[in-house]
Amino acid sequence: MTKKVFKGGTIVTSTGMYKGDILVENEKITEIGTNFKPWKDEEVIDCKGKYILPGAIDAHTHLAMPFGGTISTDDYESGTRSAAAGGTTTVFDFIMQDTGETFPDALARRDAIAREQAVVDYSFHLGVKDVSNGIIDTMEDAVKLGVPSFKVFMVYDFGVTDGVFYQVLEKSKEIGALIAVHAENNEMVNMFTKKFIAEGKTSAWYHYLSRPEFVEGEADKRAIAWAKSLNAPLYIVHLANKEGMDAVIQARDEGYPIFAETCPQYLNFTSDVYKRDDARNFVCSPPIKGKVSQDALWDGINKGDITTVATDHCPFLLSEKDWGKDNFTKIPNGCAGIENMYPYMLSQANKGKITFSKAVEVCATNVAKIFGLDHVKGAIEVGRDADIVIYDPKKNVTIENRNMHGNTDHTIWEGVKIKGYPVATYSRGNLIFKDGEFFGDKGAGKFVPCKPIKLTSPELY
Ligand code: URP
Ligand code: ZN
Ligand code: ZN
Q1: CATH number of the domain that residue 423 is part of
Q2: Is any atom of ligand 1 closer than 6 Å to the C-beta of 89?
Q3: Are residues 17 and 145 in the same domain?
């Protein structure tokens, strides 16, 4: 690969912004400075007036995942292509373990597909279903293979019991792993769902009412209590409610290694979407909550109590969402967002709601730190992979699904105005997206093994 120099741009880090030139050689950032003298054979990329950002790392995606009676619409190729178009250069996908399957086997099964298809780098979290008959001990083997994060669901038909959740939390401490949790109270969800269906209350609004604020908040508190009792680190995925946010803040103030992720859909929309004609397209779990919760999440981001922002990308076709036109329980849960996260968070920075550094911190730098990728990803620093995004703060875009790059036929983000936009994306120094055009290659994305995770305080060192 020829040398590349990114010249004259403003580099954004998680702590500040400064003018600098970046030299890229053999897929890595090898020098950062000012006024580099010309070499002989380098390609110079003029970045004047632009910001230079680390590619985002999406910590939460479900690509080609069997769920809700179908398979999520984006596979590893279309999902990662869509990611690249929005400035995301690494994705974490959730592998759903089959019953009886060891964790290394689950990893090998999915990596065989991802390796053929992904256009940007990727890693995995392992979804825990079954830890019986010694399978729990294979968690350690997965850590050794570079996957030290596991997710338990407190809901859905594949959710784990409280006992299994506690066991894996305990195990995680021994082996250098982090447990992520989808926290909602399953009993409550089932009770409300049954009641509404029996009463003929079947619209998508009742999806929201069947999983009200406290159903998520109570489960957050329970999960935190168990993690605290073991002094085990815990990562709450897609946090959407204030009660849970408050519990996270309290645990962190007490010094416990409790971390929370939220998603752009919870930051931009409120539960009012479930009154719209297209409400079923917004059906995801946990559902989007009210304004009080939304404000608490933004506050959590600004104060550092939300550690990461990720998409929970889990798209379905309109025809599949339509299965639940007359019965909300038939709507596959999940929305697309992989292409919209970084542009949206950066737009919020451009509008002054957060700083650009905060957007980089929660979408890239913290994700790399918490999941053990910070030796290669998550920042514009010498020695890291040249996963670089050129961002034009003056380019305004109105989101339209027809201009997006995934396989889904609609987006909940349709019509949302974005101030500033990523105009070019480089994956390990290779241009893969520029001005609306995709240049990447299927299979060029590599599995990135993560380091073991040892988190003993709420600080990410
Ligand atoms: O509705 C959602 N979030 N679907 C994806 C699966 C999950 O719960 O993360
Ligand atoms: Zn979930
Ligand atoms: Zn999810």
Answers
A1: 2.30.40.10
A2: no
A3: no
Residue listed under structure tokens 């020829």: 2
**Dist. CA 137–CA 144, nearest whole Å:** 12
Confidence category of residue 3, pLDDT binned at 50, 70, 90: very high
Looking at the structure, tell me whether residues 103 and 18 fall in a common domain: no
Q: Indicate whether residue 263 lines ligand 1 (CB < 6 A).
A: no
Distance 314 CA to ligand 3 centre (A): 7
Interatomic CA distance for residues 391 and 85, integer angstroms:
12
Q: How confident is the model at residue 40 (pLDDT cuts 50, 70, 90)?
A: confident
The two three-digit tokens of residue 125, written as one number: 């979290």
Residue 411 confidence (pLDDT):
98
Has residue 142 got a pLDDT over 80?
yes
Ligand 1 contact, 58 CB (< 6 A): no
Domain limits for position 134? 55-370
Look at residue 1 and tell me whether its pLDDT is greater than 80. Answer: no
Residues 168 and 208 in one domain: yes
Give a yes or no: residue 455 inside a domain. no
In-domain check, residue 292: yes
Is 366 in contact with 307 (CB distance < 8 Å)? yes
For residues 198 and 327, state if they share a domain. yes
| Mutational test site, ligand 1, from 67, 238, 312, max ligand atoms within 8 Å of CB | 312
> Which ligand is in closest contact with the Cα of 412?
1
How many CA atoms lie within 13 Å of 425's alpha carbon, on the beta-carbon side? Answer: 30
Return the ∠ at Cα 352 (arms to 351 and 353), rounded to 5°.
100
Answer yes or no: is 95 within a domain.
yes
What token pair was written down for 50?
A: 């632009």
Residue nearest atom 4 of ligand 1, based on CA coordinates: 334
Domain boundary among 370, 386, 412: 370
For the Cβ of 321 lying below 6 angstroms from any atom of ligand 1, the answer is: no
| Tens-place pLDDT, residues 308-331 | 999 999 999 999 999 999 999 999
pLDDT at 35: 83
Q: Rounded distance, CA 273 to CA 384, Å?
A: 41
Residue to mutate (ligand 1; options 152, 186, 238; most atoms within 8 A of CB): 238
Q: What is the pLDDT of residue 2?
A: 86
